[in-house]
Design brief:
The complex is a heterotrimer of chains A (338), B (499) and C (360).
Chain A: H1 2-25, E1 34-38, H2 42-56, E2 60-64, H3 67-77, E3 85-88, H4 91-99, E4 103-104, H5 108-113, E5 126-138, E6 163-165, H6 170-183, H7 185-198, E7 199-201, H8 205-213, E8 219-223, H9 224-232, E9 241-244, E10 255-263, H10 269-279, H11 282-290, H12 325-335
Parallel strand pairs in A: 1-2, 1-3, 6-7, 6-8
Antiparallel strand pairs in A: 3-10, 4-10, 5-8, 5-9, 5-10
Chain B: H1 2-24, H2 28-35, H3 38-71, H4 77-85, H5 92-102, H6 108-120, H7 122-134, H8 137-145, H9 150-179, H10 182-186, H11 192-202, H12 207-233, H13 256-284, H14 292-326, H15 330-339, H16 341-344, H17 347-360, H18 369-394, H19 397-405, H20 410-438, H21 442-447, H22 455-464, H23 468-498
Chain C: E1 2-13, E2 16-27, E3 31-35, H1 42-50, E4 57-62, E5 65-69, E6 72-73, E7 81-84, H2 96-100, H3 106-111, H4 113-121, H5 138-150, E8 156-160, H6 168-185, E9 188-193, H7 196-202, E10 205-210, E11 213-218, H8 220-225, H9 230-235, E12 240-247, E13 250-253, E14 256-259, E15 267-273, E16 278-281, E17 288-296, E18 300-307, E19 312-319, E20 329-334, E21 339-342
Parallel strand pairs in C: 3-9, 3-10, 7-8, 8-9
Antiparallel strand pairs in C: 1-2, 1-4, 4-5, 5-6, 10-11, 12-13, 12-15, 13-14, 15-21, 16-20, 17-18, 17-20, 18-19
Classes of the chains: A alpha/beta (338), B mainly alpha (499), C alpha+beta (360).
Chain lengths: 338, 499, 360
């Protein structure tokens, strides 16, 4: 009792000091810094943001979040949004922001840098990276002959309890949106119902990779780079796993576009446009290719030799502007996956 | 004071009002589409069976351990007292990280039940142990002289008296579970709170998240009503004056070894596994070497946010507790009750409401420390109220009267009497808020200013990406920061037990 | 000289009226006890005098200073009063010395001279100055509380049931020590209590409060010997009240014909006989009674009897040397004159068994 009374003033002054320190150091706000709402993985984002800062001297503050989270956030924020740039891992979220008229038109020079299949017809955002849908499977559980021909096969009863998906992630939702765009609503609904019965739900693709590697499930729907990244780091979580690229323009070969756009409400239009230009420039794409992210650069002149070449993936033709996020969420809610 | 109290209550009820008005303005078709669907039933089932199982397990574990330590001759009681409370210093999501990173299979219902029980059983152990120490041993002695054996005495005499403490502890476990996000997400066991976060991620502040919030709030309301009923019936375990005598201890004899083994196993599971796992990942650190820069920044941020929130929350708790202690009545009870919603509201619900409200009403506050602090205050006000109320009970109004009769003005009385007397209790309240803020995750993720990273969000980002080695230092610092506050908490409970 | 004057003070809490026009004068340097059962309003009156609450109407004057009149109130810290609450209410975070010196100026607090003086005054060992309140006995705590109240030399000391929490032996010692200290300090004091022995033994003036009114204010001996009505008589100690018929200063009742001290009363009445006025003999004159039980206290004893022929229960207080056997028959006589109170008409027909003994 006595001791605590003497300790109290000390405690109080320490906490007060800490509080002041936090107010000073926590915000780190810089008048000229760009605020980027960024969904891509930390290593990719920070590599490219650092490259941009080195080249231009403009600092970048990143607010991390998931695709839909960030897109809906700027919808909610409207004109008051503190964001200058939004970057998502998949295109449906960009489509949502674009459909609400929140994005400014991208500089024509920047659009011209990017292959046209990675730019929506509105020209209000641009792709800067791509990732391929894959089936990651446990080599002990599945022989190559047992692998499905199409991603649609996973809805069949023989996959009950043997396949992992991450339904709450934007990655999987992008894949569903590709299925919807390619096969229509009825087929998509049946496929989702099958998956609800068959699939184990994981929180993200890394968890799926680990579960497949440990044999918890035989296979899982994922993007290619999780496996490549783990193999590059020693293969602890991927030694027993291999990738099946569906190819053949199957919905399961869907190539998802990571996009970036400038917010119409941004008061730093030139700097924000500069950021997009950098992302899609040869310099920016080389940083992407050299990073640990293992995502596909979009410029034909820049390649990552570790990855299966983008030219042999044979993805289905999907207009990134036509991928419908909200409708996918509704379908998945009806199927009980969300 | 009543006006201040009402204002505080209104602040706390803001998220509740937001959700309620959202539901009220929704069409029936919308509600049916979003609420009355199989997923809701699944979440309801998951949430209910987790709460039922975990509350039961915590009740059994907490009571059994408290009885062993307080009422039997089990050796090393001082050690067990520390070890049985220590799990509180390990946030539940760090605990599940410890388990999942070593045993990826520890997930689903079984894993969730095991791990959250290990995290939360001290919430039952503490009040039950305190009640056991406060019981009048005369009752037990009379029962023994009437020829009852130890077990029948426990069942027939001791347990009924423990009921208020036991029920209070169980309720606390239930409310914690309703709000738990990180641990259950990591264990892949979707409850309402987990699902709301998923909805938020897939449709920021979308209708579905708000509808699920409404269902969750109804659930909270149910638990709070249960608590209200129990509290009304609760009595102090011991009436009359005189110093408490130590109660007779049951001789364990040949059962000593199994008892010690059981306690040791519990300690190993609840402390050994998470701490061992933490040490393992710290030592291994192959994923990356410790980045001291970000760690320091995150620690300073957590510390600063925790301290700010602690000060603000204790200040807000003052009028509420003051009314409750000094002006008891309908209004005071109503205000005090309403602050308890914070205990039951998941961070995600509060954050969602504040995001929308601030964007629409006060955009200047959006993504700022003040708004985040408000969220913390709403969430953790009950913890502060508990401490402040105990503190005010230390300074009865008669002391004010005496001070004034001795010529002191109201301010001087405050300075020389009320503040010195209440400071330790206020400190406890502040410490409780601090520990909660340091380990808070969802509200921080949604509301923190862009670029602000706390220990919890850093830890979460790493462990969500399964970069366990990278996450370990953040978890370790969180545990270190939580330890002194946990100690304070137990000291307070220990003292409360003797008074 | 009057140190405290209360005039026409009323106070209500909500719709409940607690004080109905209270008038009280407390002489300087004297101890006035306000005596009444719990809930009669005596503590409320004390708090109004202290200034912790304000009356609805009336005036309160302390010495020359009007501290409450017409809604204007002097705050308690400027009334120069000392206050000793129930159970002392020492500041738990301060030592005995700091508690006593609490109301002193910074300089006086440092010197320590006044502290020693006060400890001596209340009869406490100087060594306890360094202790904490929880290390003291209840009686010591009360003495410290008194020393604390006396330290700034207040014009008036208010004591609110200060001895009720003490056990019997300590209560007596503490009472005497407190009374002596108050007298030595020359302080004017107002003591609130529900214990008639406390009021009678300590006070210079006893004010009896009933249902928010002061019904009698007199010296202790007067209120005991000449209570204004039967209710006061009962409240002040064990009383045998018997229905009687008074004619020409003589009361005829179950105890025979008794001389009445109050000549103005005639007709149907109640006579007050104190138990110590009764004598028991084995033979001789007087009504007979059967001894039911005897409570032996050492210095004296209470003998409970059933009076013949109506079976009225009465109590006699006798010295412990000559006690009858339980079950035996005795004759009862009254040693001195008695008081009589006219019976209100409504009370005339009540059953005799209810009329008698009330224990405090």
């Amino acid at each position: 009792m006595r001791r605590s009374r003497r300790a109290l003033p000390v405690l109080l002054s320490v906490t007060l000091g800490a509080a002041l320190a936090a107010c000073g150091g926590g915000s780190g706000a810089d008048g000229n810094a760009l605020t980027v709402y960024g969904a891509p993985h930390g290593e990719l984002l920070s590599a490219m943001a650092d490259g941009f800062t080195q080249q231009t001297g403009i600092k970048v503050n990143v607010r991390p979040g998931a695709d839909a989270e960030l897109a809906n956030q700027i919808v909610q924020e409207g004109k008051a949004s503190p964001a200058d740039v939004i970057m998502t891992e998949n295109s449906p979220a960009m489509g949502l922001a674009d459909s609400r008229g929140l994005l400014a038109r991208v500089d024509t020079a920047t659009v011209a840098q990017v292959p046209s299949k990675f730019v929506p017809s509105s020209h209000n955002w641009v792709g800067f990276a791509a990732r391929s849908t894959v089936l990651v499977y446990n080599t002990k559980a599945l022989a190559p002959g047992q692998l499905p021909v199409s991603i649609m096969d996973l809805a069949q009863p023989q996959w009950r309890g043997r396949v992992g998906i991450a339904p709450s992630g934007a990655d999987f939702q992008a894949i569903v949106s590709a299925v919807l765009a390619l096969r229509g609503e009825t087929a998509t609904r049946q496929w989702l119902d099958g998956l609800k019965a068959n699939a184990k739900a994981y929180s993200n693709n890394i968890a799926i990779l680990k579960a497949v590697n440990s044999g918890e499930v035989a296979a899982g729907v994922s993007y290619h780079y999780y496996w490549y990244k783990d193999r590059a780091a020693g293969g602890v979580s991927s030694g027993n796993a291999e990738l099946r690229f569906f190819g053949n323009q199957d919905p399961g070969a869907f190539l998802s576009t990571s996009g970036a756009g400038v917010l119409a409400s941004s008061k730093k239009q030139p700097q924000a446009q500069q950021f997009l230009a950098y992302l899609t420039s040869e310099a920016g794409q080389k940083v992407l290719a050299a990073s640990k992210a293992m995502e596909y650069p979009l410029l034909p002149s820049v390649t990552n030799s570790v990855l299966r070449p983008i030219s042999v993936l044979d993805p289905p033709e999907v207009d990134p502007a036509k991928l419908n996020g909200p409708e996918v969420v509704t379908l998945m809610q009806k199927a009980g996956l969300l | 004071m009543p006006v201040l109290g009402v204002l505080v209550a209104l602040l706390v009820l803001l998220p509740l009002g937001f959700v309620a008005s959202y539901v009220a303005t929704s069409s029936w078709a919308e509600i049916r589409q979003l609420v009355l669907r199989p997923r809701t039933a699944e979440l309801l089932w998951n949430t209910s069976r987790l709460i039922a199982g975990c509350v039961l397990a915590c009740a059994v574990l907490g009571t059994a351990t408290a009885w062993l330590v307080e009422r039997t001759t089990v050796p090393w009681r001082g050690l067990w007292r520390v070890l049985l409370v220590a799990p509180l210093a390990i946030p539940a999501f760090v605990n599940s990280y410890g388990w999942v990173s070593l045993l990826p299979g520890a997930s689903g219902y079984g894993g969730a039940l095991l791990i959250v029980t290990l995290s939360y059983f001290p919430l039952v152990y503490l009040p039950v142990g305190a009640a056991l120490r406060g019981l009048d041993p005369a009752l037990e002695e009379s029962a023994f002289t009437l020829g009852r054996g130890p077990l029948r005495v426990f069942w027939g005499v001791v347990l009924p008296q423990l009921r208020p403490a036991l029920a209070g502890g169980c309720l606390l476990v239930g409310l914690h579970l309703l709000a738990e996000f990180g641990a259950l997400q990591m264990l892949r066991f979707p409850t309402f709170t987990v699902a709301i976060y998923e909805q938020y991620q897939s449709s920021f502040n979308g209708p579905a998240a708000n509808m699920l919030s409404a269902v969750l709030l109804a659930y909270c309301l149910l638990l709070l009503l249960a608590e209200l009923r129990l509290r009304r019936r609760a009595r102090y375990a011991r009436v009359g004056s005189g110093a408490a005598r130590p109660a007779p201890r049951v001789r364990l004899g040949a059962l000593t070894l199994p008892a010690v083994a059981g306690l040791a196993l519990l300690a190993a599971l609840s402390l050994g596994v998470p701490l061992g796992s933490l040490v393992y990942w710290l030592a291994k650190g192959t994923t990356s070497h410790v980045a001291f820069g970000p760690l320091g920044v995150a620690a300073a941020t957590s510390l600063g946010l925790g301290a700010t929130a602690a000060l603000v929350t204790v200040a807000l708790a003052l009028p509420v507790a003051w009314l409750d202690v000094r002006r008891p009545g309908r209004l005071a009870t109503l205000i005090e009750r309403s602050t308890y919603f914070g205990n039951a509201l998941p961070g995600i619900v509060v954050a969602l409401a504040l995001v929308t409200i601030s964007i629409r009403v006060v955009p200047a506050l959006y993504q700022t420390v003040p708004l985040l602090t408000a969220a913390y205050a709403i969430l953790f006000l009950p913890r502060a109220v508990v401490g402040v109320r105990a503190a005010l009970a230390q300074a009865p109004p008669v002391l004010d009267d005496v001070a004034r009769s001795l010529g002191l003005s109201a301010m001087a009385g405050l300075r020389r009497v009320t503040i010195p007397l209440t400071a330790p209790g206020l400190g406890v309240g502040a410490a409780l808020v601090f520990i909660a803020v340091v380990t808070e995750l969802t509200a921080t993720l949604l509301l923190a200013p862009t670029g602000t990273q706390t220990l919890a969000t850093r830890f979460w980002a790493s462990s969500d990406g399964l970069a366990y080695g990278e996450a370990a230092p953040y978890a370790a610092v969180m545990v270190l920061l939580s330890t002194p506050a946990t100690y304070l908490l137990t000291r307070d409970m220990r003292r409360a037990s003797s008074g | 000289m009057t140190a405290l004057t209360v005039q026409g003070v009323t106070k209500s809490f909500g719709t409940t009226r607690v004080l109905h026009g209270v008038d009280l004068d407390a002489p300087a340097r004297g101890l006035t006890a306000i005596l009444g059962p719990s809930g009669c309003g005596k503590t409320t009156l004390l708090r109004l005098i202290a200034g912790f609450a304000d009356p609805d109407t009336g005036t309160i004057t302390l010495g020359e200073q009007t501290v409450f009149a017409g809604g204007r109130s002097v705050p308690p810290q400027r009334r120069r009063i000392g206050y000793v609450p129930q159970e002392g209410a020492l500041f738990p975070h301060q030592s005995v010395a700091a508690n006593i010196a609490f109301g002193l100026s910074r300089r006086e607090r440092r010197s320590g001279h006044r502290l020693r003086e006060l400890l001596d005054l209340v009869g406490l060992d100087r060594e306890i100055a360094g202790r904490n309140p929880h290390e003291l006995s209840g009686g010591q705590q009360q003495r410290v509380a008194l020393a604390r109240a006396l330290a700034p030399e207040p014009d008036l000391v208010l004591l609110d049931e200060p001895f009720s929490a003490l056990d019997a032996r300590r209560r007596d010692d503490t009472r005497r020590a407190v009374a002596a200290a108050l007298r030595a300090a020359g302080a004017t004091a107002v003591l609130v209590t529900h214990d008639q022995a406390e009021a009678l033994s300590m006070a210079d003036q006893v004010a009896i409060m009933r249902d928010g009114r002061l019904v009698q204010i007199d010296r202790p001996a007067t209120v005991y010997r000449q209570p204004r009505d039967a209710g006061i008589a009962r409240f002040l100690g064990e009383a045998v009240l018997l229905p009687a018929d008074v004619i020409d200063g003589k009361a005829r009742c179950a105890l025979g014909t008794l001389v009445v001290r109050t000549p103005s009363v005639t007709g149907p009445a109640e006579v007050l006989v104190r138990p110590e006025q009764l004598r028991l003999r084995h033979d001789g004159d007087g009504p007979t009674a059967t001894v039911r039980e005897i409570s032996y206290y050492g210095h004296d004893a209470a003998v409970r009897l059933t009076l013949h022929p109506d079976g009225l229960p009465i109590t006699a207080r006798l010295s412990g040397t000559e006690l009858p056997e339980p079950g035996s028959e005795v004759r009862v006589t009254v040693t001195s004159d008695v008081l009589a109170y006219p019976t209100p008409d409504t009370r005339g027909s009540r059953p005799p068994g209810e009329a008698l003994v009330r224990h405090q």
